[in-house]
Design a protein that fits this description.
396 residues; alpha/beta; 8-stranded mixed β-sheet; 15 helices; 8 strands; disordered N terminus
Length: 396
């Protein structure tokens, strides 16, 4: 019997070999069954707890901003004047937003206003350090949105709900006479980027405001929830996305949304982002670039943009020629993305800039480059004839 495991498991011969195969099966089968049970159990756990995993425990913790740590409770802690506004969404949910306007009234009416949407972890107070830096460095107005179920907003978070929240905030801005309503931008980090893309891609009579958005800034945003599920739980890569999607209550298919956005888009990607991964941001950029040359709906595989290849069909020879007309695409495929350069044209609609930073600390790791990049994007969109940003030295 001592010989059989190694000799007969691979031979498949009759006689004592068949005895060895049976012995091997008795050894291997329990292990295979255990792996199957672990996989099924993990999959069931993820399906049942997906909202808790996606939107985080914070949706039920620290509902009051005074419970946040110091410097995360109010913009006044950062010497930023603000107004707390209560908005009503189309489905009747009351949400909170903080309006941060420049103290100089003349400046307030001239500068861009950015609707900011945070990630899935923490309420909007958690990002006050970054928002205060944006307020002071960029000299813009900001509207910080608190999703339903987060902070002091009512309701429970969901994909449809968060989109309604962002639309309510956008409606508020376009009805505000104290700001320049022709210079409204969207800014989203991680999950917030998915929300921003979904709102900017909205169409229809009830989404007229989306068509007026001047630009969209996406920071470390994912392709889709299925792509994130595969990244977090590797065995899910064995499950075809078409089989997985019916089990996901929130889809957040940013890869589809960026294809329908008409406004210019700035992609800010941290090369050390181990949560989302820079490859997902790069794929979003590629998809956005293609919207200029072809009808992208015909070139995206429905239901598969969350897979490992990003859901983009293999390029034909004609598509490859069209794609390489733009030097920015060639740059992003190389090892050194330059972002804004002197070769940019007023007609350019997408920019991809990378940083030596992680998921949530770009503005801390490369502060000067971060704010210069955003400022240049705002200038190029609102004033196309403004100078291009000089190329940054080294890897970006």
């Amino acid at each position: 019997v001592e010989k059989l495991p190694t000799q007969a498991c691979s031979s498949g011969n009759a006689g004592e070999g068949s005895v060895g195969i049976r012995f091997c099966h008795r050894m291997v089968l329990p292990e295979v069954m255990a792996l199957v049970l672990v996989f099924c159990g993990s999959f069931i756990y993820i399906v049942l707890n997906q909202d808790r995993i996606l939107y985080g425990k914070i949706a039920r913790q620290q509902r009051r901003y005074v419970e946040n740590p110091e410097n995360q409770r109010s913009p006044t802690e950062w010497t930023v004047p603000f107004e707390s506004v209560r908005l009503k969404t189309n489905d009747g949910v009351a949400i909170i937003a903080w309006l941060l306007t420049q103290p100089d009234f003349d400046l307030q009416r001239k500068v861009p206003t950015i609707l900011c949407m945070h990630g899935n972890s923490g309420n909007m107070g958690r990002g006050l350090a970054q928002y205060a830096s944006m307020f002071h460095n960029l000299r813009v107005n900001l509207l910080l949105l608190e999703y339903r179920g987060y902070g002091e907003s009512e309701g429970e978070p969901s994909e449809a709900g968060l989109i309604l929240d962002a639309k309510a905030a956008l409606k508020f801005l376009y009805s505000n006479p104290t700001i320049d309503r022709d210079q409204i931008f969207l800014f989203g980090q991680s999950l917030g980027g998915a929300v921003a893309a979904s709102v900017a891609a909205s169409t229809g009579d009830d989404d007229a405001y989306a068509a007026r958005i001047r630009g969209v800034i996406l920071e470390n945003t994912f392709l889709s929830i299925s792509a994130m599920a595969e990244r977090v739980f590797l065995p899910l890569r064995l499950v075809p996305e078409k089989l997985m999607r019916p089990f996901l209550r929130s889809q957040w298919r940013t890869c589809d949304a960026v294809a329908r956005i008409r406004a210019p888009i700035l992609f800010l990607s941290g090369l050390r982002d181990h949560m989302v991964g820079p490859e997902q941001m790069k794929e979003l950029y590629r998809i956005a670039k293609k919207r200029r040359w072809m009808r992208l709906k015909k070139n995206i595989t429905k239901g598969s943009c969350g897979s490992s290849n990003g859901g983009v069909k293999k390029k034909t020879k004609k598509e490859t020629v069209m794609m390489t007309r733009d030097s920015v695409v060639e740059r992003v495929e190389g090892s050194d993305e330059k972002g804004f350069t002197d070769t940019d044209t007023p007609q350019q609609r997408e920019w991809f800039v990378t940083f030596e930073a992680k998921h949530s600390d770009i503005y801390l790791r490369e502060t000067g480059k971060y704010f210069t990049t955003i400022q240049t994007f705002l200038n190029r969109v609102t004033r196309p004839s403004s100078p291009a940003l000089p190329s940054f030295g080294g890897r970006q």
